[in-house]
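Sorry to interrupt, but I need a hand with the structure work. Could you add the entry underneath, on a fresh line?
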Amino acid sequence: MKQILINVEPYEKRVAVTLRGTLEEFHIERADQARLAGNVYKGVIESVVPGIGALFVNIGTGKNGFLYIDDLEGSRSQPLLEEEVAVNKKGKIPGFFARKNPPPKQSVSPGRPKKGQEVIVQVVKEPIGTKGPLLTTDISLPGKYIVFMPFNDTVGVSKRVEDRQKRARLKEVLEKLDLPKGMGCIARTQSIEANPRQIRLEFKYLLSLWSRIQQRAEKQRAPLAVYEEYGLPLRIIRDYFDEDIEKILVDSREEYKKIARFAGSIQSNLRKKIFYYRGKTPLYEKYGIEERIEKIFHRKIFLKSGGSIVIEQTEGLVAIDVNTGKFTGKRNPEETVFKTNMEATQEVARQVMLRDIGGIIVIDFIDMADRGHRKEVTRALESAFKRDKAKINISPISSIGLVEMTRQRIRKSLESVSFRECPYCNGMGRVKTPATIAIAAIRKLRRKLAEKSPREVFIIAHPDVADHLEAVFKNTLRFLERRFRKRITIKRDSKIHVEDIYFE
């Protein structure tokens, strides 16, 4: 039983995908956070940096986008807005902007990119941290069944469609679409359930959409957005909604109507699975989603067998450690380790998708001596990620139990959207022990007493630190009182941070 639960608030939209009551995917979109991934822009080249083979393009969003020169030069249409460009019979070619009165013969080569030139680009990765968005000139417009590519003449079928007969049928349907020269498309996984007419209608819609994008780009000056990707609820409907979904519940009447219309335009029979939630109890409380969302951010996740996985996110990569924990087996240690690792593959995949973790991921499985077991664990991990929408690359498990993998990072991870660096520990994720803080407090106290100060000095500290001062440094405090002829009093304040010490 697979369900999609959509919660809409004025400041935030949330989508939860559950499978037999288990939270499988969770997505957030907030009103104050611009979404760029998938958007198409008419941009202006701000700078060319040959040393790193890159261009910085102003797309009007604040931070300049990053575009590889190889991406631009490797593009079949090279959509630079040059004085001289390749043209067709009408004086234009998709992606180019020719002069209003071009000479009879145009040069085919648009030349090298220069500052001030305009280019059509698409955001493939959101800005993260100090980095601007990653751009490409290989534009792709996704539909439910196909991805249309105006600058790429590839015609193919998603690798996720493994059945040869189905692949051949879809390839035949695509070849009958009468694609314009230089353009291509890829059949998505959901196209398996579609008939040729549905695919053909979607292709016509996407071709028309591209025409409107071109017209807008021609009429207006850069930088500007010429196409914006759907918001979160509609994206989920487009990418996830199929026959496997039992129902979709939406707690906003306005959003429900919008989703119902959109689903009806894609496939009318799916509309009957969409429901407006009218309950008095909030939707996510009714289905226990709120409680499960809190668990998403736990560092340690326990397996049913008693083992566990620990997830550590760093700036460079994400490390996932697998432990046997309470699961010790009965006889064969190798078999115990193998079973724990096999169970961990499913939970690792679920957690990575649930948290939307991207970039480099290193999984430290428990060491296995049997080479056959290592291969089986790798296959199980690959199988667990088959339903993942993001592009992934998994290397074979090493002799010491490490698996290196990469996962496509398009947007910020769920954790980076929901949390910020701790202002107290500066991202260390740890606080000093009461003993460390107490020692530092004694040092500060010595300096304070040496200065001109009242007859009585108050140390205000967290109760944990105060207890340590009284238990361990009792004699030290008495010595300081006698030496400086001043009274020292400790005050407890549970409201202050454990690392803070104040003197009065």
Q: What stands out?
A: The CA atoms of residues 438 and 473 lie 8 Å apart.
